Amino acid sequence: MSVNQAISKKDQPCIGLKSPDAQVEYSCSPATKDLRNIIDKGPDAVIVVDSDGTVRFVNDVYTTVFGRKADQVMGTHYMVPRPLDVSIEIDIPLLDGSFRIGKMKAVEIEWNGGQGFLITVQDVTHRKKADQELRRTTEDLKKTVQELRRANQRIINQQRAVIEEERVKVLLQMAGATAHELNQPLTALLGNIDLIKLNGDNPYELNRCMDRIEEAGKKISGIIRRIQTIPREDLQKVDSNASLFNLKKKVTILSLEDTEHDFEKIKNVCQNYKNISLIRATCIKDAITVLERGKIDLILLDHVLPDGTSIDFLELMTQKGIDVPVVVITGQGDEMTASRLIQSGAYDYLPKNRINERSLIQAIVNTLEKVRLKKEVRDVQKKMAEMSTKDDLTGLFNRRHMDEVIRQEFSRTQRYHTDLSCLLLDLDFFKLVNDSFGHIFGDYVLKEFSIVLKQNMRESDTCFRYGGEEFMILLPNTDIQGAQLAAEKIRRVFETKIYDDGTNKASVTVSIGIASVGHHHPKAPKDLIAFADMALYRAKAGGRNRYVIYFGGTMDSTPDWEPYQRKNIQQLKERISSIAGKTRKASIASIALSD
After folding, report:
1. Is pTM, for the whole model, over 0.70?
2. How confident is the model at residue 572 (pLDDT cuts 50, 70, 90)?
């Protein structure tokens, strides 16, 4: 029930509260009307009970807070909260089953000449929820900062592990025992065994596969012998407590700090390290100028600056493409600021009240280590991307990438009705080079051959190492006549090429098989390769140092190798068994080593 009457007690105006059973109408003074408006329109629910605890008055806000109309509570009993004049928190049940949170306070008043109680209830539901959300956010931020610290420590530990791993890797590389080098001959061995199963009736293919198996076995055996020569003491771990920061390396640090006292603290620390060169800027504009003019290794950045904040500076660095690690040093921030700064690109966060020689130098050390590790990760990712598409020895694209490119180029010929030619090349008598001069010189020949081959190709052409001493060139938009011209040019170049590594000299010619989409109409990319392979076989069978165009139109065409079929296949299989037995031991040894 709303305030509706004013009760005058002698000459002193007061607020009169009329209950439903009251029969007396009272006059209202202007002051009493103002008080009535305040009570009805105020933010708190107001309840008046008499000495018996019976509700005699509620204002309009009561209905909003408690969800009940005034006539539903007038005359009912209401328990007065104790002690008086003390705020307590209560749960207010609503009719829909939900709850509000209220802050209640009761005071003693005079009511109709007797004792009464005035109870106020403030709805603090939203405020409580906001406080709870703020507490949760603060806890989350504290957890974030703790996680950042743990992540920072994990990075440092990982950096130590990476250094040890790289050291061992160098030793193994010195022995010629990289995982790639071990995997390459093993893959060749297993792949050629599969080819033998597929081509058991083809003497020429059997001979080629056996040569490759023997070569792979020798490589594995040689690698294992070199690994066994590494002294075991060279594989000892590095002291985990050793400092990873090389103080002998000169470091240029930019301090973006506008306060003299704070800069002096940083300066006093850095001057103890002769190889730390400290440069100062007092505003963002000057700092950007310094960064654009010279090489800076690290930035110590104040949070509050005359022309912006550290976040503004980090965003400006990103816009200008400036990649320099930043450590934010400030007395203005807290956990929330730290989290936002890390998200904006800062490497570390250091409060000014924690600046001392150990904390500042450790922050510098950790940041420079993170930068180094980040660079190493980028380099490794780049190397891994190259290794997935390129042959490690020659630098040409590998077989895996070849499969992808030839599918794309073949689809393009079908879509746009263009031509595509394929050259399959094989170095003549390459096994003799390895046997006569050794595999090191053989690898030198393969590298030199790849370099010269790339120099004699068009930019639109793509060259691959097909396997061993075989190479493939794809010539887009090139018909069979253009392919012949390209093949003859390559043949002439290598006919006169002398391979000289300063110790050995050799001349190695090349045989080439040619096929094209427009001339031979292959149904799939593998058919185009097969046509070129058959033509290559005829080139080698015809005397080598020549190119041959595939002579047939279908995969069913068979090269003229009847004379070779009279050879004793049983003897070839016995040779295979002998070679496989020798290489099996090397394979098992290499697998045991990796464990």
Report:
1. no
2. low
